[in-house]
Amino acid sequence: MTELGNILKEAREAKGLSLDELQSITKIQKRYLLGIEEGNYSMMPGKFYVRAFIKQYAEAVGLDPEQLFEQHKNEIPSTYNEELPEQLSRVQSRRSLSPDTSKVLDFLPKLLIALFMIGAIALIWYLIVKSAGDDAEQPANTDKSKTNIEEPQNFADDSGDEGAGEEEDPPEEEEPAEEEAEPETPAQELTVASNSGSNTVYELKNTDKFVVKVVSLGRTWVSVKNGTGKIYFGEELNKDAKVSQTADLTNDTQALIKVGFAPDTEIYVNDQKLEYAISPADATTQNITINFVK
């Protein structure tokens, strides 16, 4: 048993929790919890799960996971650090681009800027020509309007002479104007407030509900809790077994989401897909905070 595993086990026993009870709280299988206590990291389902499982274990027994990682960083093999998949993904993405493709991508922004400038010049020229044509036609239109006004006036005078002495019908009451339609409710907004490293903060506005849905495209580990620490779920998702989880946080003001493997994880807020501010290829493990502005 490692020193880190011994600390976690003692904290669990101090809270009077068995491995079965801890499994129910963290949603981590009992054999993985036992492996953490014994320091047997080779039995974990994937390299990125080691830190995620230890962090979830520590939070469940009331310990600070970041402090544990710093104090016992030599006990966790470097091959299980989440930076390894990140480095591999960067190497693969760089190798996948051929030299010809890279040149095309470098030239594309310049081409788009040139097309935009040409379009802007053409639009300005069109507006100038149209404005000049409207100014030339304006005097003719003014004369026609005068003629149209005089003819009804003369007609009204003649009809007044013929109908002298007769009672005029009272004018009909005008129908009240229809009430203006109420403005439409603005669409939901889910925007990035800030991001740093693997941490991103979003703001959710213009909605009266807050439902978070997590979908696995392969195999990942995700936890969701509110701002007060209440855990809605924290478990492994696998498309061959359990592909999604949903949490209703309408009565909360904040959601804290920890994603173990972002490339295989999709997050939806009220059926709107959350776009990662940090590319999953650059940060496989991400911490996401969503502030609900009611």
Automatic annotation (TrEMBL):
Q: Which residue intervals are annotated with compositional bias (Acidic residues) in the record?
A: 158-183
Q: Which SMART domains match?
A: HTH_XRE
**For the HTH cro/C1-type domain, which residue ranges apply?**
8-68
Say if the entry is tagged with keyword Transmembrane: yes
| Membrane-spanning parts | 111-128
Q: Which GO terms describe its molecular function?
A: DNA binding
What protein name applies here?
Answer: Transcriptional regulator in cluster with unspecified monosaccharide ABC transport system
Q: Which Pfam families match?
A: HTH_25
Q: Which InterPro entries match?
A: Bact_Cytoskel_RodZ (IPR050400), Cro/C1-type_HTH (IPR001387), Lambda_DNA-bd_dom_sf (IPR010982)
